[in-house]
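Box S1 | Example of a co-folding query
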Amino acid sequence: MARRMLIAGNWKMNGLRQSLGIIEEIRAFAIVRSDLDILIAPPATLIPAAVKIAGLVKIGGQDCHSKRSGAHTGDISAEMLKDAGATYVILGHSERRAGHNEKSAMVRAKATAAQSAGLMPVICIGESESERRAGKAELVIGRQLEESLPHDTDYVIAYEPIWAIGTGLTASLDDIAAMHIFIRDRLPAGKDVKILYGGSVKPENAAAILAIEDVDGALVGGASLKADSFSAIIDAAPIRFAASK
Ligand code: 13P
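Box S1 (continued) | Returned holo structure for 1,3-dihydroxyacetonephosphate
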């Protein structure tokens, strides 16, 4: 069975109420491209308002706590995201691994919490530039997978080489293809799991990246902040016929 494509926008720490207009515009694309899933992860403050206007566009969080509730000032639980109307949550993004010292074991605990709350985790992995230059990209990715994946195999993986995020650089098509095969080989439910590529995906490179066999979509940062660039990326996705998942 072909895997359904997923084009996801990670707004990071961007977006005020006026940004909801982007979701309204993307909603029309979700109707035209009902062969794939579109996800937008706005800041948590906008999730309830985003859900109201999202139509077929799925709305997700950008992080959650591993506990259901308690004395964790400033944190948001998976159950709260679900309650706000989110259906996905991005976890283990390199900006959280670096900026919040999140280790893979923590990412796994968060992913387990997300699944228990009924959210689909999008688990991010990626090597640094020095790790790639040292020929250690596969070693690093292999270890991140081993340590970050929850027991339940219902998740999405996002491969985001750190040096490609927000830099305008993308991994070569050959490197993306090779890494996605490497990742899939290491997943217990390999062929059923969506593996997204992220890192400077733009309208100009999206068609070539999304045409790679083991690339099942994209996790888009900067280019998801404008309806015209995000919709052009959605447009660039090849049509794969598959039952909804
Ligand atoms: P850019 O598309 O801005 O490089 O960001 C990628 C990313 O980090 C998505 O999670």
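The chain has ten helices and eight strands. The two ends are 11 Å apart (CA to CA).
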